[in-house]
Amino acid sequence: MFVEIRFPDLEMYQAYAIKVERSVSYNEHRPRRPPPDLPSLLLHGRIVYIGMPLVPAVTELVIAELMYLQWMDPKEPIYLYINSTGTTRDDGETVGMETEGFAIYDAMMQLKNEIHTVAVGAAIAMIQQPRVPSSGLMPASDALIRAKEVIINRDTLVNLLAKHTGNSVETVADAMKRPFYMDSTRAKEFGVIDKILWRGQEKIMADAAPPEESDKNAGIKILDAI
């Protein structure tokens, strides 16, 4: 017994396009752009954070962010958070020039925006005697020039601190003879800071803006919990 098997005309099926659904890949759910980094998110809230010693790269970034925020809105305030050892490291080794701090100061002074500075952690390195780096193989004439530059920077810093703290030049110069460390209370007495902001100090916080208003001014939006 023979069974004849006939196949349909293949040409008829080839006339139709066969549609195949592509399987869903995990790559399709990945964002096409990388997520913004934390400094960018802070910058969006008009917050500039200094958390490293003042080396040229850090100074360049801070000044660029300040100028950008002024360009975005010259009327809105800028919030500058500082947790930096200034031009030195934690071990006291000099890693930058005092002019790095002067550059940030000059940029702040020429901005139209109101700038609120908040010290968190360490913000002490500029309240000390500028240091002369190790001369090493430096010629004596060059070492003398550097020493004169340090004296000029010291006098400039003394005058600026006296101007902004309300102390006499002699008082500031005497404090800068050696590294002068201050806690928040001593810093307020010396005139380096205006207020101490921490929870549990109702009297000190009475004239400060409430957290909701501060968040609003900083551009921070709090989403309601779902």
Automatic annotation (TrEMBL):
A GO CC term assigned to this protein in UniProt: endopeptidase Clp complex
Any GO MF annotation of the entry: serine-type endopeptidase activity
Biological process per Gene Ontology, one example term: protein quality control for misfolded or incompletely synthesized proteins
Similarity-based family: Belongs to the peptidase S14 family.
Protein name listed in UniProt: ATP-dependent Clp protease proteolytic subunit
